[in-house]
Fold:
Amino acid sequence: MMFHEEFECMPRPALEALQLKRLQATVARVHGNVPFYRESLAKAGIKPADINSLEDLQRIPFTTKQDMRDSYPYGLFAAPMEEIVRIHASSGTTGKPTVVGYTQKDISTWTELMARSFVAAGVHKGDIIHNAYGYGLFTGGLGAHYGAERLGASVIPISGGNTKRQIVIMKDFGSTVLTCTPSYSLYMAEAAREEGVDFRDLKLRVGIFGAEPWSETMRGEIEAKLNLAALDIYGLSEIMGPGVAIECIEAKHGLHIWEDHFIAEIIDPDTGKVLPEGEKGELVITTITKEGIPLLRYRTRDITSITREPCKCGRTHARIARMSGRSDDMLIIRGVNVFPSQIESILMRIEGVEPHYLLIVDRDGNLDTLEVQVEVDERIFSDEVKVLQALSKQIEKEIKDLLGVTCTVRLVEPKTIARSEGKAKRVNDKRKM
Ligand code: DLL
Structure:
């Protein structure tokens, strides 16, 4: 099943021709309307008329999060405020939020792409979508909401929070689809157990999880605990919100990025050079249909790879791999590069270890230290000290063998690590303070 078959299965030459046409229009738009782009294009010696092929995109300078901060709040908008019908913002950990604006047409594109994403994930009219992404400045709640309505599904706008009530509603209302962050889904699984609710008695069939990095092993854990098919959805407010890319239910292997609206490139984050297909690097996205705040070559900081190999679902749009982290979340511990997701993968493979963990990075003299706090289940926790010690040693060894970094593992009691109703906080890097 497809929502926009004509576009989703467009032969690549036609798709690329469409991209070029839309790219040219976007460059002309920002050149005309956004002083920041007029200057940066001039500095690079580019006039809109110079963009004659998709390769010419590589001549255009990048846009960064800092550029967005510098033009806080509305400096990069390419439409007059009277045409902006919605404003969202992402908070981030430091500094001012990043502000984005949508015209009526942008909202309609986003709605269509979210509906398209739902259908790719096997969701259809008649489904009851329990939308536990937060409603507000965060794009998750409203983005999924509009897409669900466009599809003609029934949406329950529950937002995040009040987890016990979420379980009751899911059960009583017969929800068939769950949308929230992967970490929140596990928190729900835990709350359900406490309430004596078994997910096998619920009607949930599909979960659409994103907004934070998660691992393939975490997928296994969620599918087993919530008794549903868990799919990965990607997006970011700067580009649109959720629905930029999603896994198809047919292959569950790589996220189709909607190339009739976005051009994706993978670059080496250090040199800025575009990498060949299949290589891992930073995802750079150019929007080609946006009016409110079109962005040229936006550096997402997200690490992935891209493939244009045909997919068994029949869609022709490229697929990006599950995000392996953000280049700015990458921890450098005694010179070793480590992504929290790599540690997560190791932890999740170990029997008795729960998917709730926190990495604490600190400095002892000149030496970086890493402590991995992870919850174990009741059964293990009530075991003898000897057993617990052996288990921590085993995890320390696996982390050392696979990632080359020395750490101490602290096994903690169930429910001691803070739960999140939105994006989980996995790292506490005390070195920066
Ligand atoms: O998180 C939009 C969204 C909402 C996506 C709901 C999916 C579902 P921001 O708050 O602007 O927007 O955060 C964007 O979150 O650059 C990634 O680092 C991270 N992220 C989003 N989806 C994924 C994912 C929303 N599937 C930032 N896997 C992005 C890994 C993700 N990281």
Notes: The chain has a mean pLDDT of 95. The pocket of DLL is lined by residues 90, 133, 138-140, 210-213, 232-237, 241-242, 300, 302, 323, 326 (CB under 6 Å).
